[in-house]
Amino acid sequence: MDYFTTTGAARRLASSCILAGVYERGKLGAAAEDIDSATGGRLADLIRQSDISTSVGSCTVLPALPGVKAKRILVVGLGKRGEFGISQYRKAIAAGIAAIRHTRIHDITNFLTLEEVNGASPYYLARYAVETIGNALYRFDEMKSGRKKPSVPLKKIGFAVQKRGDARQVDLACQHADAIVNGMSLAKDLGNLPPNVCTPSYLGRTAVQLAKKHRNLQTRVLNETEIKRLGMHSFLSVTNGTSEPAKLIVMQYKGTTKQRPTVLVGKGITFDAGGISLKPGPGMDEMKYDMCGAASVMATMAVVATLKLPINLNVVIPTCENLPSSTATRPGDIVTSMAGLTIEVLNTDAEGRLILCDALTYSRRFKPETIIDVATLTGACVIALGHHRTAIMSNDDELADELRRGGIAADDRGWPMPIADEYDSELHSNFADFANIGKREGGAITAACFLGRFTKDMKWAHLDIAGTAWRTGGQKGSTGRPVPMLTEFLLRRAGALP
Ligand code: BES
Ligand code: MN
Ligand code: ZN
User: Fold this and answer.
1) Does ligand 1 have an atom closer than 6 angstroms to the CB of 349?
2) Could you give the CA distance from residue 452 to residue 449 in angstroms, rounded to a whole number?
3) Whole-number Å distance between alpha carbons of 423 and 447
4) What is the pLDDT of residues 437-463, one digit of tens each?
5) Which of these, 112, 149, 162, 310, is most buried using a 10 Å CB contact count?
6) Does 299 lie in the same domain as 157?
């Protein structure tokens, strides 16, 4: 995608399509105002006659008008002016793109960046726009037979800006957002691929390919012999039931000298049947998404490498399947983790924490400044927060807040949940150092407490993305979250924001 900015008036822009907004009660957005006066009040007339709807996301395409240089004007409703915020802004842009996606229009200029949107800066307005368009244009048809739909003709996105300084912000935003869109598409593809294609080995190959594409990026994929040598028996206990080989993927990006790295750890269960504690049948296909933590940290690495951010970042991905068989781990088995702590596996379906704890222990060798694990860890998280917020848990309140604020800025929100001794003591075991489950209630928190036992002297946060990583129902599909939140967090640390 190409991007450009313009400081000119809407009527004078030679573009194949201008995106202009109109509010309820006949109030015109900046571009609509200019076009209206250039055409002797045509827009106001059309709104009065109800030929143009002003409700959020309603689209009307007007062909060339005398007095306006652009070939067409895509008028989009913005709703009530007083209620126009980021979600309405994104909805309007998504609707505008949907309205032209089957046309041959190959460039569009967004004038909504001139509107007042909750005080958001031109940088963020451009970023939301590019990300929204990227989302709207994303398709996953790799697995469909027959002729593939031709790629979308949209090649160029313009942004109206008030002044030169804004143009610089918008250029930067487009660069960042373009990388985020590509990262999210990678994360979505990996999530949407079926579990017989997206195996641990496939994830490993994807990581190796990324390293080939970016200098500064190194990847190692460890096999089961090497994983065993490291003493990761908790991780390995999860893969016991499958003949598909487990992998440990380690990626290292060096964007600066002398700085302890940030480490991202992603849960990479490419299919979670539950093991011997087998899950119920309905909806089990969705457990192919149980590697979305892995996908999102790998994708965030791709964004960072693309933008060449001046930070050091490591990614660690334990990846395997969780299947039942005669060689599978049994409920009641006791395993020894890499840290030397013994774990009574009371439920083989609580497998995410069993692979993550060893990856967290492995990550110590990098002396992380901060370590963040990302996982579709618990159904309880979905019950607690639904599908809109990622759960943020941390042993450092400032880190939790940094992630929460990053999520707000990136419009990919999270919400804090506590980690505390009352929950932690539920992990008591009569036979091992502790068990892998607590009570059903507060299950997202006891899961975090389990991980917390392996991160005691590190600055650590845990993101439970079980509710946010994919959508179910008619819109079933991977969302690419929390790539925007993680990227925002790292952009801030890199001092790369305006
Ligand atoms: N991958 C699941 C968590 C999950 C479930 C995510 C449903 C999204 C939707 C995880 O491995 C799991 O099975 N967790 C169990 C833990 C329980 C046995 C303590 C759960 O949440 O039921
Ligand atoms: Mn499970
Ligand atoms: Zn799982």
Assistant:
1) yes
2) 5
3) 9
4) 999 999 999 999 999 999 999 999 999
5) 112
6) no
